[in-house]
Amino acid sequence: MKFNRAVIKVGSALVSPDAKGCSGKYLLAIARFITQCQQAGKEIILVSSGSVAAGRSLITHGSPNPSIPTKQAMASVGQMQMMANWQRFFDVPCSQLLITHGDLKDRQRYINIKNTLRILLENGVIPIVNENDTVATEELKVGDNDNLAALVALVSEADSLFILSDVDGVFEQDPRINPQAKLIPEIAKIDDSVYALAGATNNHIATGGMKTKIQAAEKAVENGIETYILNGSRGEVFEQLLSGDNPGTHFIAQQGATRARKHWLKHTLKSNGKVMLDLGAVRALTEQGASLLPSGISAVSGNFKVGDCIDVFDSKSQQCIAKGISQYNYRDLKRIQGKKSDEISTVLGCCPSKVVIHRDDMVLLTNIRN
């Protein structure tokens, strides 16, 4: 399987098969696959459901459909168990990220999540993401971890998304009704006919069914992310993945993830400011593929916020050579322009980032070598 960075979404039915706490029944094979991927130099982010299911037996309730406050209490106690359960399968450290839809919609928090994931991966840590069920309200909830996984794949700039549950993939007919129904191995375009194949979930501890998985796949493939729906309860699935086979349903990305992101940066984002660079910084960006440091900036203009797109100019030729997402707002960048990264804390009192624009958040423009 050819990928460099993947998001793996693990459903509640795999984390807590009987809804009576965490289990290693299916997770051992998943963890082994993740370890093998890491050993091959690949980066993995986990999006794990199961906190509510893990805490279900520990909170008194008298209904198969508990109230939201009851579910939030279940999530609160279950999240601890779920994280401990995952960590016991790995020799490398795991980290916990609890987020809501509100975090993903807020520019500053989006950048913070992105930076955190980037640093965790650079240090060999496995990020484990879940929706913050203990505080999320209905209007803020992503609603299911399938769609959350797609959004995490976008934030982290993953090139692949694996959605694991207790189903093999998308079938031509409902296999529960027709056991002879055939699995669809590849879907090139997601339209109404594909959604029509989705049936409702019959698992009372799961929040999503096939429809939410297809929704997640649609979000991902539109942004160049190869997406797979796989049966995580079958250990042989991971052996097939490692050997390059497709054991489930593969949704084909519409364009490469890197290409999609560069197109988005170049053609979609509106720039709200600009910076002028000295010769050394221009060469670092165009010849070495470096990130933009404050030391190379000679002038700043505009009125931009953290997370806004800004244009990058060569001060000598007056040519716009790049554009990218700024880690600083206009006022702070004005204060640290020309300074070394080690001086940022002294000037601002803190150091949100040692770079102004990370190379992953930048696109070089026409006639400049990418």
What does this 3D model show about the protein?
The structure is a single chain. Helices cover 36% and strands 19% of the residues. With 370 residues, it is an alpha/beta fold. The protein folds into two domains: 5-257, Acetylglutamate kinase-like (Carbamate kinase); 269-364, Archaeosine Trna-guanine Transglycosylase, Chain: A, domain 4, CATH 2.30.130.10.
Corresponding CATH architecture of the largest domain: 3-Layer(aba) Sandwich
What topology, given as strand order, has the largest sheet?
A: 3-4-2-1-5-7-8-6
Chain-averaged pLDDT? 88
Q: What class, by secondary structure content?
A: alpha/beta
Level of helix content? 25-40%
CATH class of the largest domain: Alpha Beta
Number of domains: 2
The tally of beta strands, per DSSP, is 13
Query: How is the CATH topology of the largest domain named?
Result: Carbamate kinase
How many individual helices? 14
What's the SSE pattern? EHHEHHEHHEHEEHHEHEHEHEEEHHE
C-alpha termini separation: 26 Å
Relevant CATH superfamily of the largest domain: Acetylglutamate kinase-like
Uncertain runs with pLDDT below 50, 5 residues or more? Answer: 200-207
Radius of gyration from the CA trace? 22 Å
The major sheet is characterized as:
8 strands, mixed
Strand content: 15-25%
Shape assignment: globular
